[in-house]
Design a protein that fits this description.
This protein has 5 helices and 7 strands, in the order αβββαααββαββ. It has helices at 3-16, 48-53, 56-72, 81-89, 150-153; strands spanning 23-27, 35-38, 43-47, 119-122, 129-132, 158-160, 166-167. It is elongated, with a radius of gyration of 22 Å. The termini are far apart.
């Protein structure tokens, strides 16, 4: 299935069920999910790798998954009874997750493993291991911390397992203003 076919199929499903204000986008950056339904912006996002690497049946199943979310609305339980029935009504299998999708991290093979999470941090106090797929962003005075150990004892330093790059917590920068200059 091409991107154009996926977009038109999704728009057709949305308009058939009276969701005319919704838009469909191709997410080129995401690698950790196949699709997403955003209620606030009335948008359905489909991952570029989903369309490019998977057979039509898997792409259609993901599209019906996201359209089912749009139809039942944000108040319905995310993958509950109402959503499951709608997904099946649209032609999907009613399952919440798909572990057999091919993604960029599996070298063209379907797998049950999660995608690669190259960024790793280990709590200096309790030793708990945390992982991320994307590079952690740190702002002065704001940093990642181990929830059980707290912000003082559990500051996390992130290391990329492939490149060895390190992202350390950044302390808050204090700026003192001389009141004599500002009257």
């Amino acid at each position: 299935m091409t991107e154009l076919e996926a977009l038109s199929y999704t728009k057709n499903l949305l308009s058939t069920h009276g969701l005319h204000g919704w838009t469909v986008v191709i997410d080129r950056r995401t690698k950790g999910r196949a699709g997403i339904c955003r209620f606030r912006t009335s948008t359905i996002g489909l991952s570029e790798w989903l369309i490019r690497l998977n057979p039509d049946s898997k792409v259609r199943n993901t599209i019906t998954h996201e359209v089912a979310h749009a139809i039942v609305g944000p108040r319905a339980k995310a993958h509950g009874y109402e959503w499951r029935n709608m997904h099946r009504h649209l032609g999907g299998d009613g399952k919440a997750r798909y572990y057999d999708l091919v993604n960029p991290y599996t070298n063209g093979e379907a797998t049950r493993k999660r995608h690669a999470r190259n960024w790793v941090a280990i709590c200096p106090t309790c030793g708990k291991r945390y992982t991320k797929a994307r590079k952690p962003i740190t702002v002065p005075g704001r940093y990642y911390a181990c929830p059980p150990c707290g912000r003082v004892r559990g500051k996390l330093t992130w290391t990329n397992q492939k490149t060895g790059e390190v992202v350390k917590p950044r302390e808050k920068i204090e700026i003192y203003i001389d009141k004599r200059l500002w009257g």
